[in-house]
Write a sequence for this structure.
């Protein structure tokens, strides 16, 4: 039977970074990754493919609503191959309950089972997200077999403990990992994935989603930018010039290299990106100024 591991989490929590860590611990297995990007293009797919991983992309929607049929077809196709494990990274606004309907399909359940559900939670943004985006945020937490705090190194120990206590109220059974990711060992990661009771589809009653009230924008930028120019754009994102941007990420051409940026809820990072030949940019939020954003990156 093929293992199906779900790595969920809100926008910008660190799902792709976590998956990259997990993949290094699974170097003896044949692993396929399914990326679900709410926007039109998938930056995460670009990042993972650069590192040599086999990635299937489902973009421009969420598999918990309008892409559910596409997801089922993709899963059937992958299960016709000789593989050991599928790692599924849903969009950050994924309603986790919905995935269990897929495993009621006899063609899927005969070949594949849900091995683990790991939810990544940004420790510093937990309180804000649980209040502002309660519906799908709590769904991701309450259905997890393991909860991993990201960015815990930026909080005081007592603050991390308070987040862990709040998470325990939402999920009384899940393993909760609070340590700095630098300290995560391969055995820690394999324990999160493999040491779980078998997750049965009837464990959860799905609450069907009608969709999401978010805008998205994705495109291939053509401009060339210095780091300071990119910083200026992201500062304007922070100040609401281009709408209420919850999540932005991309790879853009600089003068003699590429730069990767990650923007989440008013904070951002910029780092060099290697082995890239094309840029890609994606934004999710509300009231996005799409024409302005598209123009500024050209």
């Amino acid at each position: 039977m093929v293992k199906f591991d779900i790595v969920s989490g809100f926008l910008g929590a660190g799902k792709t970074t976590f998956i990259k860590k997990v993949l290094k611990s699974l170097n003896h297995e044949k692993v396929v990754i399914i990326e679900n990007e709410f926007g039109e293009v998938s930056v995460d797919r670009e990042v993972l493919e650069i590192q040599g991983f086999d990635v299937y992309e489902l973009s421009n929607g969420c598999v918990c609503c309008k892409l559910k049929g596409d997801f089922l077809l993709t899963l059937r196709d992958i299960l016709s191959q000789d593989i050991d494990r599928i790692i599924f990274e849903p969009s950050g606004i994924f309603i986790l309950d919905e995935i269990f309907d897929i495993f009621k399909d006899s063609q899927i359940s005969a070949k594949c089972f849900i091995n683990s559900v790991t939810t990544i939670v940004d420790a510093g943004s937990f309180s804000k997200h649980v209040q502002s985006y309660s519906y799908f945020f709590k769904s991701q937490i309450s259905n997890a077999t393991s909860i991993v705090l990201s960015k815990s190194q930026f909080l005081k120990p007592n603050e991390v403990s308070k987040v862990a206590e709040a998470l325990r109220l939402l999920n009384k059974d899940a393993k909760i990992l609070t340590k700095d990711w630098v300290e995560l060992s391969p055995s820690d990661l394999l324990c999160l994935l493999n040491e779980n009771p078998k997750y049965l589809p009837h464990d959860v009653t799905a609450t069907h989603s009608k969709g999401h009230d978010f805008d998205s924008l994705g495109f291939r930028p053509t401009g060339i930018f210095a780091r300071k120019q990119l910083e200026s754009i992201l500062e304007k994102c922070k100040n609401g010039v281009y709408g209420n941007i919850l999540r932005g990420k991309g790879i853009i051409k600089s003068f003699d290299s590429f730069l990767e940026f990650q923007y989440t809820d008013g904070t951002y990072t910029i780092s060099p990106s290697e082995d890239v030949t094309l840029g890609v940019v994606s934004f999710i939020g509300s009231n996005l100024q799409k024409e302005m954003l598209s123009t500024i990156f050209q």
